[in-house]
Every structure is written in C-alpha cells, then in structure tokens.
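seq/struct pair 1
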Amino acid sequence: MRVAGAVVVIAVLDGGSGADLARRFSAAGAAGLLVADLRPGVAEDLAAELDRPGCPVVGVSGDIHHPADVAALVATAVKHLGPIDLFAVAGPDGERIVQLADLPGHLDPLAEVLALVGEAIGEVVPAQRRPVTDVPLAG
C-alpha cells in the first residue's frame, strides 16, 4: 500500500485510538489526513498536534456507524484535502485500511465506502457475547 502522497481518512471507533495510526501515516508522507473520533475534541486536538505544511490534518467528531456521518466525512475530506485514497478504521481490536482505488469505478463510490466501512467495523470490534437466549438457564 502506497501512503506517500495519499489522502487518508481515519475513523476511530469506541475503544479504538487513531493517534498512532495518524502519526504513522504522517511520517510515511501522507498528503493529508482527516481524523474522526466519537469523542468530541479528541480528533481536533490530534489534528492541531500533527498539522504541518505538506500534510494538513483535519479533525472532526463523527460516528461511522451512521451512513450520514460517513457521507459527511467523505465530503469534508474531499473539500479540504482532495480525493480520498485510503480509509482506515481504528477499533479496539486493531485497524483495517481500505484502498479506495480498489473500488469498481462504475459503482456509487459512497455506497461502496459504506459497505467497506461496515466490513472493517466487523473486523476491528470484538466479537459480541452470545445472546442471552442461547445460554442454558440453570434449573
């Protein structure tokens, strides 16, 4: 995966951290970063810390569980940084990075991003406990 010159969106889920990921992308020569975190102020503070000439960093609050928030992240990134090359999801069980160049060009890009983000969330969030209905009751 080529990071140098790439515009990267990093979406942080509850229990995840995008700080190390953002620092790695910045050090690898990303052309710009947008960091979105559920916690108000966290992404904005990180953006203020990492923003530099050659790699502007935008921080916003957002929840990628909501398609409208994903659409807003994409629109904000494109407006301030240019077309997105990589979309990363940081969760409590790691991170997943999607190269948007791999998306089929004939499909709706936002719909494809939403589908990939959904898959990424499933990979970086711990498996849920079995539903209570599956647990035998003592008796």
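seq/struct pair 2
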Amino acid sequence: MKTNVTGIEFIDPKININWKLTEEDLVNILKCERNDSHFYIFEAKLYPIDIDVFSRITFNDFGYKMEIIVSQTKQERDKNSKAIYIDTNNMNILHNYVEEKFGSPKFFSKLISIINKPFYNHRWTFDDFKLSHKYQDSVIGFYECLLFDVKY
C-alpha cells in the first residue's frame, strides 16, 4: 500500500483536497457560503484521468467524508426493444486510477468482491483516512464511486 498520497486533485475547476482540509478551506476554494448542514457538492474532472465526477463532502467533528461519483454513464435503448446497451468503455474506470494512486486493496475485500460479482467494494486503510472503491454493474447501468472517511 502506498502511504505518501497527500490528497486528491481535480481540474476544471482546479481543486486540491488534502487530508487536513477544513470546512473553511473548502468554502474558500468553492467560493460559496458556509452552510449549517456542513454538506457541499461540486462537479469537476478528476486528475489525471480527466473524467467528470460529482464530489460530495460532509464535515463532522472528527474530519470529513468525501464521495467521488463517476458521472459518465452512457446508456442506449433501442426503440424497438426493451434491452439497454451500456457503453462498456465507461465501466470501472476508477479501478486503475485508485490502484495506481493508493496501491492494492486489502486482500479480504478483494476476496469478498470475487464472490459478490458484479458488485464489489475494495477497501484501504491509512493513518489519516479509510478509502472504499465501490462498483456495481447491472442491466440498468453502473454505479462507481470512491468513499473517503478522513479523520483529523
């Protein structure tokens, strides 16, 4: 496992999220008002893979939780059929990114994921945060996200 990762980078707009991010820092980065729910959302491109994602960040007393959700699902439905065709080039696009950036996931999470195909949830644990890579492939589309649970 790699332990020297300092944060997540986004482009368009340029946003850098580090593991010590405070709510005030994020409000300044996003140029928005602080809100009572401590919940913020933004769209950007994940660097360096240049894909559109939605990011949701919720602050709590111990740190924050960040969810990065892939937003490039492409589906096509033939007018004369009930079948839905999904662009397979857009599936599981975070897999290589997350393994290159954070290393191989925990063995146990890989084992459980093999049993639960086409769903999986790979996990990593570091000193400052926990990470999950969730992926679900089904006939109605796919869902893929990274979940960070950051503790100060």
